């Protein structure tokens, strides 16, 4: 079996801190100090880069070889080194940055495996305005293999906010325009194939549609709600049917403090000229759309990677003017009954 070369994990830098000390890594979650070095050792370690073979470094250190080997062992124990990835597992394109980052976050340093496993994921995105389009683009460039797109309304000039859609696509159905954008951003992504989604992101205006939420629950589909309003967007909750508080739970909680909420909700979400509905299809502020889409995509990636998203039982309001997220926790409502549903199968993570 071929011995794989050991190097620092991607993104780990070595910086001098003084005459006898270096720092390995910048992020306080894993950075360490190495002290008690002589000047030659400081120079030796400050010359280490992402391509340095650490075993060869020790072999070439002469009288200091034993000390260098011990430092390499200490860095390995601190999770700052890893063997080269297996042949054929290199991640190319924009997802390579995800692989590098996950090489720092996973115990074994195999960020490539983590990202390549996303190619098996199928994610639906409903609503392809500026926010939904940005969610889809984030997922595609992070390595998600298949996206199911749902929105045939035409691209409007307001949808160009944040670079989500192109001016040349104004008037084209959003899903059609989205396919072009995604194929440019991530040529390997599969779009609208015949596949069942692992999770669905639903981007709606003003309020989450109870009928759609009920349908997702009935099919046992994990889903993430994103609700866009004129000056803010609410991301969450992330719902795993039978496990987490659902959108109906949130509406029941709202009705507990505002008896008129069911009436308002019905007028916001019902269709047809005789329902009193006031469905809005306005623009989406670019900075709010960008921040909301990044958060939503990150929650989906946590799920497809096999972990539990932080927005199960929580929402984040991202509002103008500061676009700083404000978290609100939610519990299952005793009158809902969603917790008695069978839970979904575990996601097929790496």
TrEMBL record:
It comes from the Bacteria. GO terms for molecular function: ubiquitin-like modifier activating enzyme activity. It holds the Pfam family ThiF. InterPro entries: ThiF_NAD_FAD-bd, Ubiquitin-activating_enz. Residues 113-337 form the THIF-type NAD/FAD binding fold domain. This is THIF-type NAD/FAD binding fold domain-containing protein. It comes from Cellulomonas oligotrophica.
């Amino acid at each position: 079996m071929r011995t794989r070369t050991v190097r620092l994990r991607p993104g780990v830098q070595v910086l001098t801190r003084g005459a006898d000390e270096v720092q390995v890594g910048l992020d306080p979650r894993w950075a360490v100090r190495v002290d008690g070095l002589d000047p030659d050792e400081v120079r030796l370690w400050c010359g280490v880069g992402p391509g340095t073979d650490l075993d060869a470094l020790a072999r070439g250190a002469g009288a200091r070889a034993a000390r260098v080997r011990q430092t390499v062992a200490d860095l390995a124990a601190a999770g700052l080194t890893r063997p080269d990835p297996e042949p054929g597992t290199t991640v190319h394109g924009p997802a390579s940055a995800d692989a590098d980052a996950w090489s720092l976050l996973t115990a074994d340093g195999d960020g490539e495996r983590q990202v390549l496993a996303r190619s098996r994921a199928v994610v639906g995105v409903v609503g392809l305005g500026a926010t939904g389009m940005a969610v889809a683009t984030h997922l595609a460039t992070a390595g998600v293999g298949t996206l199911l797109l749902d929105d045939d309304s035409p691209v409007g000039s307001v949808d160009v906010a944040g670079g989500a859609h192109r001016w040349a696509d104004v008037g084209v159905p959003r899903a059609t325009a989205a396919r072009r954008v995604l194929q440019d951003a991530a040529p390997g992504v599969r779009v609208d194939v015949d596949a069942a989604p692992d999770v669905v992101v639903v981007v709606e205006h003003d309020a989450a549609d109870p009928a759609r939420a009920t349908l997702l629950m009935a099919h046992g589909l994990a889903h993430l709600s994103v609700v866009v309003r004129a000056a803010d967007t609410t991301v969450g909750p992330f719902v795993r049917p039978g496990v987490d508080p659902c959108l109906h739970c949130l509406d029941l909680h709202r009705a507990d403090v505002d008896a008129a909420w069911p009436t308002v909700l019905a007028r916001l979400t019902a269709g047809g000229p005789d329902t009193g509905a006031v469905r809005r299809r306005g623009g989406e502020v670019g900075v709010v759309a960008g921040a909301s889409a990044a958060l939503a995509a990150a929650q989906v990636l946590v799920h497809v990677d096999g972990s539990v998203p932080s927005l199960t039982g929580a929402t984040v309001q991202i509002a103008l003017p500061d676009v700083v997220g404000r978290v609100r926790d939610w519990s299952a409502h005793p009158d809902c009954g969603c917790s008695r549903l069978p839970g979904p199968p575990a996601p097929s993570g790496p």
